């Protein structure tokens, strides 16, 4: 399959906000993958001097299927960026480039290497070798065209919080599962049942493959295409959502349908300016905030459903 890379190269006084809002536009038009290029991020420890150079300008690249819907999606993207320009400080240009799936994969694989994201947990690509220490939990991930390598701050925060709050034998639901990394982390940390949902059929397929890569028994996991209505007849001990803050705010209204009383809700994908608004929303629907954690300007919130 061929894909169209639409790279939004931009400058803004509030880069973090711009990154999230541009990413949300791609989400709205049905993205099949996204790469955030941030020149302010430090290089991975141990990279050689001739490794891939950091980007010169901040950019968000979205990957759209090159099919009959591409012209429509491109127009929507351009119109949405123009509207965004009227609401925040933003100067941008869009660069389009056609490429096939193999080219896309190689273009970002150079940035994905084994990385320890907690004292116990290591995320590694399926195509690289890694010798684990006796106490380490290794998550093998091939994101394909889905979001979720584990190296993004929001994913790192969610994995760390799952490690902290999950008790062996509990159940977990991952909303917007992407590559399935949070399900895999929960299963390897002792969850009895893990379930993921995603509106993107490609993400669903990739998450299922990653669960198999990690030898998670099919009797202990499931991945469904759809929204909360696909699982509202079940209740979970933990629910996690690493998605856009606007989507988190909307799903809070229906969280009681899938989260047990006194159950734990972990969410990230939140930038600092939107933290207080989301905390107010949580309180209004009977979810008590327990902790707030930040990493590189990204926020993760842990809440507990009240009886």
Written description of the protein model:
There is one protein chain. The chain is of the alpha/beta class. It folds into two domains: 2-109, Alpha-Beta Plaits (2-Layer Sandwich); 115-305, Vaccinia Virus protein VP39 (Rossmann fold, 3-Layer(aba) Sandwich). Helix content is 29%, strand content 31%. The protein has eight helices and 14 strands. The protein has helices at 15-28, 70-85, 101-109, 153-165, 181-188, 201-213, 245-251, 275-284, and strands at residues 2-11, 34-37, 59-65, 91-100, 115-116, 121-125, 137-141, 171-175, 193-198, 221-225, 236-242, 259-271, 287-295, 298-305. A seven-stranded mixed sheet has the order 10-9-8-11-12-14-13, with helices on both faces. A hairpin with a 4-residue loop joins strand 5 (115-116) and strand 6 (121-125). It is globular and about 50 Å long. Residues 43-52 have low confidence and may be disordered.
| Stretches with pLDDT under 50, minimum 5 residues | 43-52
Number of domains: 2
CATH superfamily of the largest domain: Vaccinia Virus protein VP39
Q: Return the CATH architecture of the largest domain.
A: 3-Layer(aba) Sandwich
Helical run tally: 8
CATH topology tier name of the largest domain: Rossmann fold
Secondary structure: helix percent: 25-40%
Largest sheet: 7 strands, mixed
Number of strands: 14
Order of helices and strands: EHEEHEHEEEHEHEHEEHEHEE
Q: Going across the biggest sheet, name each strand in turn.
A: 10-9-8-11-12-14-13
What is the first-to-last residue Cα distance?
Answer: 49 Å
What does the overall shape look like?
A: globular
Rg measurement, Å:
19 Å
State the name of the first-level CATH class of the largest domain.
Alpha Beta
Name the structural class: alpha/beta
